[in-house]
Amino acid sequence: SKYLLEVQELKKYYPVHGGFLRRKVGDVKAVDNISLDLKRGETFGLVGESGCGKSTAGRTITRLFKPTEGKILFEGRDITKLRGSELRDLRQDVQMVFQDPYASLNPKMMVGSIVSEPLINYKKGSENSLKEEVIALLKRVGLPEDAYYKYPHEFSGGQRQRIGIARALALKPKLIVADEPVSALDVSVQSQVLNLLKELQQEFNLTLLFIAHDLSVVKHMSDRIGVMYLGNLVEVADANEIYRDPKHPYTQALISAIPQPDPRNKSERVILSGDVPSPQNPPTGCPFHPRCPKVMPHCSEVKPELKEVNREHRVSCLLYE
Ligand code: SF4
Ligand code: MG
Predict the structure, then answer these.
(1) Which residues, in sequence order, are bridge partners of residue 13?
(2) Is the Cβ atom of 98 under 6 angstroms away from ligand 1?
(3) Closest CA to 192 of 165, 169, 170
(4) For ligand 1, what atom is nearest to the CA of residue 287?
(5) How is domain 3-93+173-311 classified at the CATH fold level?
(6) How many CB atoms lie within 10 A of CB 9?
(7) What is the reported pTM?
């Protein structure tokens, strides 16, 4: 199969308890229903505002979280319900890079130990070669050789993220899910870390799921892009196509918000009214209808499905049905 990962109708709900007896009163539908395939070696950008469920989707796909419903296939194998040692084995192939590199690095551990840890846990590399291997990794991600004996607080934000990337790479995984890996970094450092990820992706033939809240960040990184809104995937397309010809009104609004360097390209900025509704009480019908500039009378009644409108361009909007 050309797909490394196949996600079918995935849901992740969190129960909400309330009242004196703390009974279950509802669900937060963090991921409501997403179907998504990742091709081997591609970078897939998953975009949406904060709270849209993209981080939860990333963590459920990698099985850091248990799905509520749906199916996840990794190299054709069903990993939806893996537990214990099988789940542990999956970690060799699937790794994460987190948003806050400092919070995800143990401050009491030397960088050498942080990056060696996965290799030791999975008994990879011999004791003699381990240190050399880790030093080579640190160098590859652009850290100085003496980083091995230093602690996370001795590094800048961008360098800490490089440590996180080295750790994720140590086991030579097939898939890396990077959850907003640059959004905590200074703008001047962001593109350096993005370039590094892009280089490593090619060099190690990684499949990369790149999560971001900003379409402009994923633009140069991604082969394909998926846009999430309130736990739903509303549009998926080739990266160039989604910028050139966005179909979903939400994607159109996101793209109109990207500053255009060339003033001749100025298109009308679409301002969305209101806030993202609560995922505990999502709107009926199309989840975007309370904010949609193109809303039609039946949009509050019928929930659109993600359907193909062009080759490999899928959109969930009643305008195209
Ligand atoms: Fe807007 Fe209706 Fe399309 Fe939803 S289905 S995005 S409300 S036009
Ligand atoms: Mg997040």
Answers:
(1) 29
(2) no
(3) 165
(4) 4
(5) Rossmann fold (3.40.50)
(6) 12
(7) 0.93
Q: Is 28 exposed, middle or buried, given 0-12, 13-18 or 19+ CB atoms closer than 10 A?
A: middle
Digit-coded pLDDT (tens) for 140-170: 999 998 999 999 999 999 999 999 999 999 9
CB 294 less than 6 A from any atom of ligand 1? yes
Whose Cα sits closest to atom 8 in ligand 1? 295
Question: And the tokens for 261?
Answer: 């360097």
For the chain, the structural domain boundaries read 3-93+173-311, 104-172
Query: 288 CB under 6 A from ligand 1?
Result: yes
Mutate to test the pocket of ligand 1, among 295, 307, 315, 316 (most ligand atoms within 8 A of CB): 295
Which tokens belong to 146? 């003496």
Other beta carbons within 10 Å of 218: 23
Question: 10 Å Cβ neighbour count for 174?
Answer: 19
100 alpha carbon, distance to own chain's centre: 14
182 contacts 194 by C-beta, under 8 angstroms: yes
Q: What residue owns the CA closest to ligand 1's atom 7?
A: 289
CB distance 308 to 314 below 8 Å = yes
ipTM entry: 0.96
Q: Which ligand is nearest to the CA of 47?
A: 2
Which has the closest alpha carbon to 232: 32, 1, 2?
32
- For 250-292, give the DSSP string: HHHHHHHTSPPSSGGG--PPPPPPSPPPPTTSPPSSSTTGGG-
d(CA 61, CA 74): 10
Which residues partner with 3 through β-bridges? 39
